[in-house]
Each structure stands twice: as C-alpha cells, then as structure tokens.
Design a protein that fits this description.
Largest sheet: 7 strands, antiparallel
Strand content: 25-35%
Shape: elongated
Number of domains: 2
Structural class: alpha+beta
CATH topology of the largest domain: PH-domain like
Order of helices and strands: HEEEEHEEEH
Number of strands: 7
Strand order of the largest sheet: 1-2-3-4-7-6-5
Number of helices: 3
C-alpha cells in the first residue's frame, strides 16, 4: 500500500526547499543591485574617504571615521573628475568654522552643511539629537580633514 502522507510530505519539503533557494537567490541579486556601482575607497592613516558612483548619472563621496561612522555625505556630482577635485581640495585646505553652516530641521534635529570657500555646498552631516553632538561631529570632521591634509603633504 502506498503511503500518500509520506509522499505528500516529501513533495512539500521539496517545493519548500525550492522556494527558499529561489528566495535566497533573489535576495542576493537584490543586494548586489543595491550596492553602489564602481565603488572605490582609499584609506589614509586609518581614516577613510569613499568615492562611489551613486547611479548612472552621479558620483558621490563620504568621509568616514576609522570605525566606519559617516561624518559627511557629499552632494551628487555629474562628473567623476569633480568628485576627485573636491576630495583633493579637502586634503589641501584648513577647514575653519566659517565653512560650516549649522542647521536645525523641522523635527528639532541638528545637522551641518560643509561649504567651500565660495559658499558652494560640498556635503551634509547626519542628523544629531543635540547641538553638542553636532558640534562634536564638526570637530571630528575638521580633525579628519586635517589628518588627510597631513597625509597628503608627506
């Protein structure tokens, strides 16, 4: 006599295994598609600037700490050369407080924008819960950029 229950269970397990495998494959493909294209990064004395292609028409960079926290997200640039130029400028200038625009969003979070000597926006920070946190972020970014400037001189 044929045990239909056992056959049905084996069939269900095979189908379920196939569904799980397909789902994992789809998730892997989606993960690959969500990664920035042409991702490039370099480190200087444990500090990191990451330059990457954001989509088909723009390029960006991030300034990060050694531990991987993002200090600054750049604006979108249409040319890779523009990103390289701004990163090079960051490594050669001393960034004083007048390069920073301090702001508060409509929910009471603090953030800052980094501007160049001509007042053009370079990038923006994450959101901070306190003004002290934002000021700390500015100080950390200034230290990071100073470290990069020292590394480019040597």
């Amino acid at each position: 006599m044929i045990n239909y229950s056992q056959n049905l269970r084996a069939f269900a397990q095979a189908i379920l295994g196939s569904i799980i495998q397909t789902n994992l494959s789809i998730n892997f493909v989606l993960l690959q598609l969500s990664m920035p294209r042409n991702f490039v990064s370099f480190t200087e004395k444990g500090k990191v600037i990451e330059k990457f292609r954001d989509n088909d028409t723009s390029y960006r960079f991030k300034v990060k700490t050694k531990s991987g926290h993002t200090l600054l997200n750049s604006i979108a640039f249409t040319q890779k050369e523009d990103v390289d130029k701004v990163v090079q400028q960051l490594q050669t200038i001393k960034i004083s407080n007048n390069y920073f625009e301090r702001k508060t969003d409509h929910e009471g979070h603090f953030l800052f924008n980094l501007k160049d000597a001509n007042g053009n926006l370079i990038g923006h920070s994450q959101l901070y819960d306190s003004e002290m946190g934002m000021e700390n972020g500015i100080k950390n970014l200034q230290n990071q950029i100073a470290t990069l400037a020292q590394a480019s001189e040597s």
